[in-house]
Design goal:
The protein has 25 helices and no strands. By secondary structure, it is mostly helical.
Length: 489
């Protein structure tokens, strides 16, 4: 089926050559619409980062109010990741079935309500349940937001804007420690500061949800659903906003059709989508992308969650110029301190996370600017190479500041998620794109949950071998990256 522009004459429509979607979206140019679209999509990504990670900074304060055990504390720390791991598949399916922007609006609204309720929790069970709910619904912000961004761009700008959207993830890593520094030390008579902190972390979600009501559905998604007229209407709108010209001057009046499967809800459609993702031609790449996603978040998030503890060990042994492992061994041999509910809040770990977040913002922005020039796979391989070397040399570093830099670089393996998303968004067909990214996201969050729960015990018991094993594992990931697809199928 081919549609013509509603503003063109029948003769012009009949004589016009149909254009591919790539040609049509490139004709809209890149301008003000895409800048606003980038901001709102970025706020979606940022809201997920904030909501999933912010709880780790209020464990001590919440423990004093709700009286949960150390085991429950660890479980609570993984609650957001558990919710994301469960929800990303469901929300990816809904994004492919109901539409990108509609899914994002609904799920962000529900996550805002769930997060707000969690701030008024009266016991561990209530807090745990509503933080899992928050992670479940906020997972839509990453399971389909990269597809939503990719489908508004041509090949020349697509990868750059996907990676620029990912820049908002580390901005979230700056936001929640910054809020913690200003809020958690407060002394409030009738309301615990950690509850106010959770409420303030909802702000990015509110901005993102409001902005989504000003944005249209993905034009490529509309075309893939057999709606070329609606697709052209969105393309004309983008063209007009970007150029300041009339919609009638948009140069495309016909579109080549895409193979489409009309939206439907049911197990059969889910099964059909999985058949595509794990079909004979692409199942190895699907599995490879999932394992690489698992690996980079296993290392990155696992190290990140234990970074404040490692740095506190280094600071307590700063006068002896110890290596990381020597500092850990010495601190374990000495007297351990148990955090108290009395006294002022120590904001040092929040400040450290804030500085690391600023570094990540800069590195994500750097990736977004050079990825097109260098190439996705080449940049991915180089980045992993630096991560592997940094992990291995930690064993010999005796300077505390050099150790912190090396640890930060290891954590920065998580920055390659943006490159992986760009590769996946370019590779998978439109009708299963969001679900494919959801599977990858689920792999990421499973890696985060596993890394968060196993890194601590392994690091404390086998530190001398730990960083060598991590370095070797990163080298394995590097080899698998060589096998990733380089171009769109």
């Amino acid at each position: 089926m081919v549609s013509s522009s509603e503003n063109s004459s029948d003769n012009d429509a009949d004589s016009a050559e149909p254009q591919t979607f790539e040609e049509a979206i490139s004709s809209t140019m890149v301008g003000r619409f895409h800048y606003f679209h980038l901001f709102i999509a970025g706020m979606c990504a940022m809201s997920m980062m904030v909501e999933v990670s912010c709880l780790s900074l209020v464990m001590s304060a919440a423990k004093c109010d709700l009286n949960f055990t150390v085991y429950q504390q660890g479980l609570l720390g993984s609650s957001g990741f558990i919710g994301v791991a469960i929800g990303c598949q469901v929300l990816g399916f809904l994004a492919d079935s109901l539409g990108r922007v509609k899914t994002l609006r609904i799920m962000l609204g529900i996550s805002i309500c769930s997060s707000l309720i969690s701030a008024f929790s009266v016991n561990f069970q209530m807090l745990m349940v509503f933080r899992v709910f928050t992670g479940f619904f906020i997972s839509g912000c990453q399971s389909c937001v990269f597809s939503y961004v990719a489908e508004f761009h041509g090949s020349k700008s697509r990868v750059k804007y996907i990676t620029m959207t990912a820049v908002f993830l580390p901005i979230g890593g700056v936001y929640f420690p910054g809020i913690a520094i200003g809020v958690l030390p407060l002394s409030l008579e009738s309301f615990s500061p950690w509850r106010l902190y959770l409420i303030l972390n909802i702000l990015p979600s509110i901005i993102a949800c409001g902005g989504l009501f000003l944005l249209p559905e993905s034009p490529k998604y509309l075309l893939s659903q057999g709606k070329p007229d609606e697709c052209l209407k969105v393309l004309r709108q983008i063209f007009s906003v970007n150029t300041g010209k009339s919609k009638n001057l948009y140069p495309c009046s016909k579109l080549e059709t895409l193979e489409f499967q009309r939206s439907q809800i049911g197990l059969k459609l889910i099964k059909d989508k999985f058949k595509v993702l794990f079909s004979k031609n692409i199942y190895l790449q699907t599995l490879n992308l999932c394992f690489v996603a698992f690996g980079i978040t296993f290392v990155g998030t696992g190290t990140y969650m234990w970074l404040p503890v490692i740095i506190s060990f280094l600071l307590s042994n700063s006068e002896t110029s110890s290596t990381v492992c020597e500092a850990i061994t010495s601190s374990q041999a000495g007297n351990s301190t148990i955090s108290s509910c009395e006294g002022p809040v120590n904001t040092l770990q929040y400040e450290i996370l804030l500085y690391i977040g600023v570094f990540f913002v800069c590195s994500y922005f750097f990736i977004s600017q050079i990825i097109t020039l260098v190439g996705k796979k080449r940049l991915f391989v180089c980045w992993l190479g630096v991560n592997a070397v940094s992990s291995i040399v930690i064993y010999w570093i005796h300077n505390i500041y050099a150790s912190m830099v090396a640890l930060t670089i290891v954590v920065a393996i998580g920055n390659t998620n943006s490159i992986l998303n760009a590769i996946a968004a370019d590779y998978f067909p439109t009708d299963v794109n969001a679900m494919a990214l959801s599977i990858i996201l689920m792999s990421c969050k499973v890696g985060a949950v596993v890394g968060t729960n196993v890194f601590g015990s392994i690091l404390l018991q086998y530190c001398n071998q730990f960083f060598f094993v991590i370095g070797g594992f990163i080298v394995l990931l590097l080899g698998l990256v060589f096998l990733l697809p380089g171009n769109k199928r």
